[in-house]
Amino acid sequence: MHTHEGMGNGFETSVTLLVLALLLVYPVAAWKTNNHYRRWPIHRYVFWGSGILSAGAALVGPVADWTHMNFAGHMTGHLLLGMLAPLLLVFAKPVTLLLRTLPVQAARRVTGVLNSQPLGLLTHPMTATVLNIGGLYLLYTTGLYPMMHQSTALYALIHLHVFLAGYLFTSALIYIDLTPHRYSHVYRAGILILALAGHKILSKYLYAHPPGGVGKAEAEQGAMLMYYGGDVVDLALIIILCYHWYEATAPRLQASETLEMRQE
């Protein structure tokens, strides 16, 4: 069992205020830009709110309390913070909204950063996969997992990494929001297969080798939750990638079939 004695009220208050601020800023920004651009779709507000609440639930509230007490609870928080929330937030298109909101010069500077080589390296599908899946291996196969329950700063840093790496991974594989550095569907599909394999292997490893301070029964529950719970988001990524792949190739296939019919 893992208590959270090191987690003070200050941490929970900070997260709560951040969640409330993010829930407020996004719709205000979207509403303000509606006067100058096409009206921001309602479903993106829903994706944003759902994503922020999913991430917040992993850090504050009953689910968050459970994550400190049980490894299965911890894994539930991991699925919410590192997988579900990033997927929902990518569909909210925050980068596109940011560029709509900023003055022209500031938007150009942000676009320059997005197009830069360092950011291109950071958002490369392989880099994103290493940061995401590799970070989990580092967390669960070293002493980091028990250590983070003793330090609020380390706890916050690790959870920030889980969220950002999850968002980076999701946005690098499915192109929903503005993404300057793009790679082929074949390449991204290959990276996704590697990432899914890495996630499955880690969950099986945790089933047999519990992290420090975690009992065997807890480890088995958490590992099974990681194995099967992640399938839902993984399936969504597969469907979206395949759908985009089909959309990209369907016009060519139709044109090719039309040409063949004319030649006949």
* Strand runs, count: 0
* Main sheet specs: none
Structural class: mainly alpha
Oligomerization status of the protein chains: single chain
How would the global form be characterised? globular
What's the total helix number?
Answer: 12
Query: Which stretches are poorly predicted, pLDDT < 50 over at least 5 residues?
Result: 257-264
Helix content: over 70%
Give me the Rg, rounded.
Answer: 21 Å
Q: Please report the distance between the alpha carbons of the first and last residues.
A: 72 Å
What's the SSE pattern?
Answer: HHHHHHHHHHHH
* Content of β-strand: under 5%
Can you give the mean pLDDT?
89
Describe this structure in words.
- The chain is mostly helical.
- It has helices at residues 9-33, 42-57, 62-69, 71-91, 94-101, 104-114, 117-122, 125-141, 144-148, 152-173, 185-208, 216-263.
Name its key features.
264 residues, mainly alpha, 12 helices, globular
Give a quick precis of the structure:
This protein has 264 residues and is an all-alpha fold.
Question: Which helices and strands occur, and which strands form pairs?
Answer:
Layout: H1 9-33, H2 42-57, H3 62-69, H4 71-91, H5 94-101, H6 104-114, H7 117-122, H8 125-141, H9 144-148, H10 152-173, H11 185-208, H12 216-263
Helix pairs in contact: 1-2, 1-5, 2-4, 3-4, 4-10, 4-12, 5-6, 8-10, 8-11, 11-12
